[in-house]
Amino acid sequence: PAGGPRTGAVPGRHTRRLPRAGGMEAGVRLSAGASKWDIRKKIWDYMEANNLADFPRPVHHRIPNFKGSHQACDAVRELEVFNRTSEIKVDPDKPLEGVRLVTLQARKTLLVPTPRLRSGLFNKIVPPPGATKEILRICATSQGVKDYSVPIGLDAKVQVDLVVVGSVAVSEKGWRIGKGEGFADMEYAMMVSMGAIREDTPVVTIVHDCQVVDITEELLDDHDLTVDYILTPTRTIKTGCKRPKPQGIIWHKISYKMLERIPILKNLRYREKQAGKDVILKDEHPDFPNARKPEDSDENAKSGNTKLQTESTSAQIEHRHVGNHSLSIKSETHGALATVYVGNIPPGTRVSELKSALREFHASPLRLSWQGAQCRAFLDYTDKMTAESVVSSLKGLSLRGQTLRVEMAKNQRNKGQVEINGQRNESE
């Protein structure tokens, strides 16, 4: 059995070293003072040079897949923390495919983060009724995550019992190094912010034996996620890590660029700002070179084709008929307007509340058509690309604790015209 106070052999598992290429027993050797990037590169190079890597290759700049990953993943069945869980969050990385499969086979709720957090935080994987073993295998793949998933909003009552993340390197003390983009750390911080995990929720990582290396604690920052269990093809390591995990999003380390790239981050910031929390960004912080004042920086957060806010009133009304409570809007601009539908608005919400939220997300429309009695509104934008950017930005937005339904409008627009029957209308 593996020795050491932090290393435990799981019953039924043989604790042995996998043979290295050419029968070599030498592992990854790190020089003193190695940086995070030095460690990543050493491991990526070693796995490729010794043919330990598996598809997709090369493994550089990835959470590396490795030969024996399914064997390592299967060992999660023997963890008590897995058997007593009901909801498990597993990252979408290829080497974690086996854990996703085991979770589905055990009929537990599987949550997978959306790649690079582009369109929200979680997708819940929902296999079809009576799914065969083969269908479950497909559901566990990246394609299955796309085909059999249902998005989970920020207001969903999610309570994650176990977190499974990929790593490039990890130490027996629980220090972890990812591929350098910070998404696993960010996902964890977001889950804390939305109340989806507890302080004692265990974190597991799956790696090859060669990825378990000595990492100095000096390399860790306060936003870095640590792990409680390490599963390899040969060992199960209980780290006993006591270092506190991230307690939420550290806003002064978030840049405007990151905020624009991750729409759900905007939603969480809006919520925390409404709750009175400090959400000053890195670019606004006094220690940041050429720091901007928070009240002056919103305009600069917009960039390129994703510029959503406009003060323009160029869409003029040519015809308005209110005698029968209907309104026709026709744009003088060339081409048809693109319209966004906002539904599931809580009863009693005022139009000013929606306008305030839209300004916060740099998504003020050319015209807002309010149908409060039907709990919906329509937002006009100059073109389809801007409207689609708004839809992406507002995913998961909530008012009065209720998640809004935001999507491109269907059948409400016809060549720039809208008919709104039987409802009072308020416009920008």
UniProtKB/TrEMBL annotation:
> Per the UniProt record, which residue ranges are transmembrane?
none
The answer to whether UniProt assigns keyword RNA-binding to this entry is yes
* Molecular function via GO: RNA binding
Tell me the ranges covered by the RRM domain, including all copies.
Answer: 338-411
> Can you list the GO cellular component terms from the UniProt entry?
cytoplasm
The record's listing under SUPFAM superfamilies reads: NagB/RpiA/CoA transferase-like (SSF100950), RNA-binding domain, RBD (SSF54928)
Q: Which Pfam families does the protein's record reference?
A: 5-FTHF_cyc-lig (PF01812)
Region (Disordered) residue ranges read: 1-22, 279-315
Q: Residue spans with biased composition (Basic and acidic residues)? A: 279-301
Q: Where is the composition biased (Polar residues)?
A: 302-315
Keywords tagged on the record: RNA-binding
What is the name of this protein? Methenyltetrahydrofolate synthase domain-containing protein
Gene name of this polypeptide? MTHFSD
